[in-house]
Design goal:
By secondary structure, this protein is an alpha+beta fold. It folds into two domains: 79 residues, no CATH class; 87 residues, no CATH class. Helix content is 52%, strand content 17%.
Length: 186
């Protein structure tokens, strides 16, 4: 018999081989745990970056305090947006402009009707009639998209233009003036 076979036949040899296998497994386990510890340490350092160097509990308390502060600021901003939205309904934001030629003997569309109103239809209609000799300008109040004064057809068209326009669309429209020429019905 050679030495190797006798080693496996004796009980002391079997115990030594088993102990060697267990030591190898333990070594593999230690290497695995060291690698995992290094990875966790890297993640912890990344997590703690930018903090005052305290422990994880302090950092979490700071984070929670910051999140609460951000939530409070978001509530304040939301309240402000709601107030501004409500107040903006009374800002002049609807615009309708109609250029026209009331007299065939003058050149161009020099006359106009301009309606400016808030979201409730409160505002003004400004009209200009241009002739060869003089230009006259008229202003009429708007209350709920109507006026207590008689309105011309062009003023009514300008009001209709202002009323149909969504102020949000005007903000993104390439031509927010709303200039429209009436059809020639002659």
């Amino acid at each position: 018999m050679n030495g190797g076979e006798s080693l496996f036949r004796s009980s002391a040899g079997s115990v030594a081989v088993i102990a060697l296998a267990l030591a190898a497994l333990a070594l593999v386990g230690v290497v695995f745990l060291l690698a995992r510890q290094q990875r966790l340490l890297g993640q912890y350092q990344h997590l703690m970056a930018g903090t005052s160097g305290g422990n994880l509990e302090t950092m979490l308390h700071d984070h929670i305090a910051g999140a609460r502060k951000a939530g409070d600021q978001a509530k304040i901003a939301d309240q402000l947006v709601r107030r501004l939205e409500k107040a903006s309904r009374f800002n002049l934001q609807h615009l309708g402009l109609l250029r026209f030629n009331p007299f065939r003997d003058t050149g161009g569309d020099q006359s106009f009707a301009l309606a400016i109103a808030d979201d409730h239809g409160q505002g003004v209609v400004i009209s200009s009639l241009h002739t060869r000799d003089v230009t006259r300008v008229y202003a009429k109040p708007l209350i709920a998209w109507d006026s207590t004064y008689a309105l011309t057809d062009e003023e009514k068209q300008a009001i209709a233009l202002a009323r149909q326009k969504d102020p949000e669309e005007l903000a993104y429209s390439p031509s927010p003036t709303g200039i429209v020429r009436p059809r020639d019905e002659g």
